[in-house]
Amino acid sequence: MFTMKSIPGGVCAPEGFYADGIAAGLKPNGQKDMAFIRSDTLCDVAAIFTANRFQAAPIRHFKKHGITQTNFVLVNAKNANAMTGEAGVADIEEILAHAKAVFPSLENPVMSSTGVIGVRLPKEKLTAGLETFDLTAKNPDAAARAIMTTDSYDKQVAFEVTLETGESFRIGAMAKGAGMIDPAMATMLCFVTTDAAVPADEMKALLRSGAETTFNAISVDGDTSTNDTVMLLSNGQSALYHREAFAHALHKAMHELALMIVADGEGATKCVAFEVTGAKNDEEAAICAKALTHSLLVKTALYGEDPNWGRIASTIGASGVQCDPTTLTIAFGGVTVYDRGTILFDAETEAKAAKVMRKKAFAIRCDLGQGDGAFTAYGCDLGHEYVKINADYRT
Amino acid sequence: MFTMKSIPGGVCAPEGFYADGIAAGLKPNGQKDMAFIRSDTLCDVAAIFTANRFQAAPIRHFKKHGITQTNFVLVNAKNANAMTGEAGVADIEEILAHAKAVFPSLENPVMSSTGVIGVRLPKEKLTAGLETFDLTAKNPDAAARAIMTTDSYDKQVAFEVTLETGESFRIGAMAKGAGMIDPAMATMLCFVTTDAAVPADEMKALLRSGAETTFNAISVDGDTSTNDTVMLLSNGQSALYHREAFAHALHKAMHELALMIVADGEGATKCVAFEVTGAKNDEEAAICAKALTHSLLVKTALYGEDPNWGRIASTIGASGVQCDPTTLTIAFGGVTVYDRGTILFDAETEAKAAKVMRKKAFAIRCDLGQGDGAFTAYGCDLGHEYVKINADYRT
Fold it and tell me: How far is CA B301 from CA A68, A113, A227, A233, B365, in A?
C-alpha cells in the first residue's frame, strides 16, 4: 500500500533536480524559449520517441550516442531541428560541447527541440543563451513555459508517494503539446524527473506501458510529428523503489499531462472522452475510439455542440472494426440517443444531449455489443482557432 | 482509335435518358431536393458502394433485391436514410411501390439518398413530390442541383465518343460531393448514364477500375460516409460497345467529377494534386499521397498559402511508407524546396513557392527515391468555412 499526494515544484519536486527557462531570442517579444533540467547527481535516463520515420536530430543524437545516463537536458522551442540531416546532429554536438565547456559538471548532456521543421538551429543564440543559465535555479514554471509552442498554458504535475514504511519518493513532470497530437505517440515533449531509484532496465517498459493509455490515447489533429519524446530521468536520491507505487505515480503524471494537452489542443474548447466498450477486443476498441478522436466531422460537431450522433455512428462504421447497427449503443454522457437499432433522438433527448455537449469535458459512450474489448481515447473539438493557428503558424 | 468531345446534357445526353429535379420540401426555402433519372428502355445497372460497415438503407435495399436492371432511379438530398434499420428499407419499398402505382412503366425502381444520418425519411413529402414528376422532362441541371447538400455548384459532365466507323455513343454523369470525402470511396453520390451497349458483366469492374484513380484518390475530410454510391446505367440504345473507348470515357467522366468534388470541398479554396513518385511500389505511393491529403497540418498550411514543407515531410515520415530524408525531394509546382538532404528554402525559394500556392490548383510533388511506385491523390485546403459548415450542419 502507498499514498500519493499532489505537491508543487514540477520537475524540481524530486530531490536534487534543478530547472529554469530563459529567453534566447528564438521566440519573438522576449518570451522564454530555452530550458534546462539538471540533476546534481547522475541520472539513469530512458526515452520513448515518435513513430515518425523522419526522427528529428535530437532523437538521432540521443540514439547515436547510446545515452543511458545524463545529468543535463537542454530543451528549446520554436525550432524542431528536424529534416536537418547530419548537420542538425552536428549542431547539437557543437551546442552541447559548448555547454560542457561553460559548465564542466555536465555529463552526457542531451537536447530536445520542438517547433518549425526544416530550419537549422540558430546556434549562436542557443550558445549565448545557455551561458546565462544559473544551474542552481529551481524555476520549474519558467522551464515549463519555455518549452511551449502554441500551448496556451504550461503543463506540470508533481506527486509525493509515501510507502507504508513512512518513506517517500517524488515524481515531477512537465510537457508541451497543443497541435500535431496523435495516438501514434502524441506529438509532444514530456520530461519526467524522479528521485525514486528506478532500475535502469525497467524504465523504458514503464514509459511504454504508461504511454499506452495516456499519451497514446489522445489526439488533437491526428498528425505525428518528428520530435515526439517522453523522457524519464531518475537520480535515485530517495534510495526507494516500489514498482507498483512508481508505475502508478508515473501513469498518473502522464495521464494528467495528457488530458491537459488535449484540453489545450490548438483552438480546443472541449476535452471529450470517447469510451468504447463491447468491442471484439481491446485492440478494436482502441481503433474505434481513436477513429472517433480523428474524425473531422465529429470534431466540428463537438465544436458546434451538436449531438449529431449519425456522424459518430458513421465513423464507427468506417473504422473497420467489427460492428453492427443492431448491437450498437451511443450515449452523450448519460443520455442514450441510439440503442441497438432504435433511434431515441426526439426533441427532448436532443436537448438533453446538447446540454451535455455544452460542458467543457464530457464522455461519449459507444458500446459495440460485440465482445468485452474496451478503450478510452481523448480528443478535442476543432474550431476556428485551430484553422487560425495553423494556417499562419510560421509567420 | 476513337475521338471524344464534351457535349451538353449531363445524364440526359445519352439516348433515351430523362431526368429532373423538384422541391419536395426536404430542403428549406423551396430548393430542389428530389431528382429522378429514367430511361425509356430497361437498363443494366451496376454500382459500387461505401466501405462503411453501416451501409445506408438505399444500399441495403439495392442489395436485398439483387437489382441488375432498372429504368428509374429516385434520389433525395437532406436525409441519408442511414442508421434507420429495417424500417429505413421498408420506407424505400413503400415509396417505390407508390412510384410504381403512379407511373406503371417503372421497373425495379431504385433509390439513393444523401444528407443527415439517423433520421427516418419524410415519406409523405417524398411520395407527394414524386407525383409531380414529369417523366418526359430532360432537365439534367435541375436533377444535378436537387442532389446537392453542401455543394456550392452542381457537377455534371457528358461526352460523345466517335469510333473509327463514324458511329458514336454517349456517356453522361452527375455527382454530389462536398464534405465527408475520403479515398476509401469518396463520400458522394455519382450517377453515370450511357447509351453504349456495355456488357452487364463488365460494368462493375469498369466502375471499380475507374474509381481507383478518381473517386478513390480524393479527400476532403477523410470521413467515409454511409451512403457513398457510384451507379452506372446502360440502356444500350447506341448498340455500340468499344471497351477501350468506353473505359476511357468513363474514367474521364469520373476524373472530372472527382476534381470538381475536391475543388468544391466544404470551404475549400484550392485543389491540390499530391504527386508521389519514387515510392517502393504503387501501393505505398497511394498510402503516402492519401496521407498528405488527410493531414490537418498540411491542409491548414494550404489554406494559409504557407509553403511549410516541413509539415509535408513530417506527414510522409508518419505515413508508414519506406522513406529516407536523404532520398526525398519535395517541390511546390516547379519549385524544389528540399532535395535529398539539402534544404533549398531560402527567402527567394520561399517567395516562389508561396506564389505557386496562391493558385487555385497546383501540384505538390514528392519523390521518395525508393523505387518506381507512383500515385496522385487530390485534396483541398481546410479553412474557416469548413468549420462553419460542419459545426452547424444539421440546423
Answer: 38, 21, 19, 36, 16
Residue A392: per-residue pLDDT = 60
How many other C-beta atoms lie within 10 A of the C-beta of residue B134?
11
User: B residues 112-131 near A, CB within 8 Å?
Assistant: 116-120
Spatial neighbors of A199 by CB under 8 A, at least 6 apart, are A241
d(CA B29, CA B32): 9
Residue B33 predicted with pLDDT over 90: yes
3-class DSSP assignment, residue B226: coil
Residue from A50, A54, A345 to probe the interface with B (highest B Cβ count within 10 Å): A54
**DSSP codes, A147-175:** T-SS-SS-EEEEEEEEETTS-EEEEEEEE
**CA distances for B7 relative to A115, B247, B306, angstroms:** 52, 18, 39
Verify whether the Cβ–Cβ distance A303 to B382 is below 8 Å. no
Residues of B marked as catalytic: 187
Tens of pLDDT along chain A (395 residues)?
899 999 999 999 999 999 999 999 999 889 999 999 999 999 999 999 988 889 999 999 999 999 999 999 999 999 999 999 999 999 999 999 999 999 999 999 999 999 888 899 999 999 999 999 999 999 999 999 999 988 889 999 999 999 999 999 999 999 998 654 443 333 589 999 999 999 999 999 999 999 989 988 887 666 678 899 999 999 999 999 999 999 999 999 999 999 998 888 777 888 999 999 999 999 999 999 999 998 888 888 898 898 989 889 999 998 999 999 999 999 999 999 999 999 998 999 999 999 999 999 999 999 999 999 999 999 988 887 777 766 665 44
Give start and end residues of each alpha helix (H) in chain A. Answer: 57-64, 85-102, 123-130, 140-146, 200-212, 243-263, 282-294, 296-303, 309-318, 347-357, 384-391
- Rounded to an integer, what distance in angstroms lies between the CA atom of residue B175 and that of residue B89? 23
Pairwise CA distance, residues B225 & B113, whole Å: 12
d(CA B59, CA B81): 10
Taking an 8 Å cut-off on Cβ atoms, the answer to whether B317 and A391 are in contact is no
Task: Write phi, then psi, for B288 (nearest 5 degrees).
Answer: -65, -45
ipTM of model: 0.81
- Would an 8 Å CB–CB cutoff place B294 in contact with chain A? yes
The residues in A 206-225 lying below 8 A from B, measured between CB atoms, are 221-225
Contact yes or no for B297 and A384 at CB 8 A: no
Residue of A70, A84, A149, A187 marked active site:
A187
State which residue of chain A sits closest to B291, comparing Cα positions.
Answer: A223
Chain B residue with the nearest C-alpha to that of A225: B314
Within 8 A of B317 by CB-CB distance, chain A residues are 52-55, 226
pTM value is 0.85
Residues of A with Cβ-Cβ distance to B296 under 8 angstroms = 221-223, 296, 382, 386, 390
Q: Quick check: B236 and B198 in contact, CB under 8 A?
A: yes
Is the separation of the CB atoms in B181 and B219 below 8 Å? yes
C-alpha torsion A201→A207→A212→A213, nearest 10: 130
